[in-house]
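Consider this record:
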Amino acid sequence: MRKTIKIGTRASQLAVKQAELAKQTIQTVLKDTEIEIVTIKTKGDKILHKTLDKIGGKGIFVKEIENALLNGTIDIAVHSMKDMPDEMPKGLELGAVLKRENPMDALVCAKNITWENLPKGAKVGTGSLRRKTQLLALRNDLNIIPIRGNIMTRLQKLENELDAVVLAVAGLVRTEQQHKISHIFQLHEMVPAACQGILALQIRKRNDFLKQVMKNITDNHADICQRAERAFLNEIGADCHAPAGALANIENEKIYMKAMFYTDELLLAEGYDSIQNAEELGKKLAMQIQKQSSVHFM
């Protein structure tokens, strides 16, 4: 009889919901195996008084979980792929990429307010530089308030602190709060974070059994799109908390992608290629943005 498989995740409501989705997906392949969810607090969960760009360093939501995977406390790590650094610790690898939830950003408003009637100078909460820069490009009168915390903590701020908050549609859907959405930003309004809505399952390299399981549950479209989007981030030299965004989608064996980056202005690029050239497309869009900018990229 095979031992219990332990899945590690952050301790937030959303993270646990995502781990449950991963568990259900794994159980389609391992029907009779017991799977346990283990919650782990990360640096990003503990430091809530600073915005993400001020904490610094890559992997603030994944390092402690990766350490638990390396030392054998857990067998699989579940991450929001948008939080994962491009480079992984020695001994770990990306096992599976699960089917993508809606990747867009959403506005949730206080009572009787909508995106269309959001008042001048309205207080809009977000902890993301990417969202902030794109919101101000749409409405430069808005008062952007930095916020941190889990989804429910952010939503509670609508009671007496904020007029609206911007959150990922995927997180709202997974925590069953999608009925509170006032407006879903379309791609021409706001480019989402690279890999937003995608769950990544990470394993130890030497675990051949789980490697085969992961292969059987990976969603090919999501995998191709994440490769293109992460190639863009890597080429432009942005970490997962930089004011950068990218969204790829696949139609008729072609991959279409739009990307944004903010330096001293909002820069955009878009294009398409065959799915075999997904990563090359990401690099090409990064180079397009680099050519537009007067700022030196690393």
